[in-house]
Amino acid sequence: MTFSFIIPVIVVTILNVFLGMLWYSPLLFGPMWIKGHKFDNKRLKPTAGHYIGSILVYFITALILAMLITRFVLLAWDCGALLAFYIWIGFVATTHFKGVIWAHRPFSVYCIDVAYYLVSLVMMGALLGAWL
Predict the structure, then answer these.
(1) What is the extent of the structural domain holding 102?
(2) What is the full DSSP assignment across 48-116?
(3) What mean pLDDT comes out for the span 10-24?
(4) 1 lies in a domain?
(5) Which SS3 state, helix, strand or coil, does residue 9 take?
(6) 37 lies in a domain?
(7) Is the distance from CB of 50 to CB of 9 less than 8 angstroms?
(8) pLDDT (tens digit, 9 = 90+) per residue, 67-98?
(9) Does 73 reside within a domain?
(10) Fewer CB in a 10 Å sphere around the end CB: N or C, the chain?
(11) Measuring CA to CA, which residue among 13, 21, 119 is closest to residue 66?
């Protein structure tokens, strides 16, 4: 297997960093997410470890998605986006819902998080499908 898709993977990883920063910022869903978790906003300060961990997660997600797109020859933006949607509905939305059922996480927090993953995955799938 060739890893000729590393540059596109790095690019969508960087885009995901910015998407996450915007999504959970005060401009969009950050205040609702903090309130839903009952976090103390003053104590919720991101560290370098948070960013490094997030970047690693985004990179691995993009890498696996790129591998699936190339393996199944889904080399068009709509095919990549559809694959990402199927991954989201089949694995992300469903498994995260267990947090609502078992850990009693607020449904509002679930919606904010899974909507973020939907936008993130579909964006990655579309870009990788078009690029690869």
Answers:
(1) 6-131
(2) HHHHHHHHHHHHHHHHHHHHHHHHTT--SHHHHHHHHHHHIIIIIHHHHHHHHHTS---HHHHHHHHHH
(3) 96
(4) no
(5) helix
(6) yes
(7) no
(8) 999 999 999 999 999 999 999 999 999 999 99
(9) yes
(10) N
(11) 13
Q: Which two tokens stand for residue 56?
A: 């690693």
In this prediction the pTM is 0.92
Output the pLDDT for position 2.
60
116 CB neighbour count, 10 Å cutoff: 20
Q: Is residue 53 part of a domain?
A: yes
Local structure of residue 25 (DSSP, 8 states): S
Query: Quick check: helix, strand or coil at residue 27?
Result: coil
Written as six digits, the tokens of 52 are 């490094």
- Residue count of the chain: 132
The reported pLDDT for the residue numbered 18 is: 96
Q: Report which of 8, 10, 128, 118 is spatially closest to residue 72, judged by C-alpha positions.
A: 128
* Residues in CB range of 5: below 8 A, 6 or more apart: 66, 67, 70, 128, 131, 132
Q: Which two tokens stand for residue 67?
A: 């591998």
125/5 Cα distance (integer angstroms): 13
Number of domains in the chain: 1
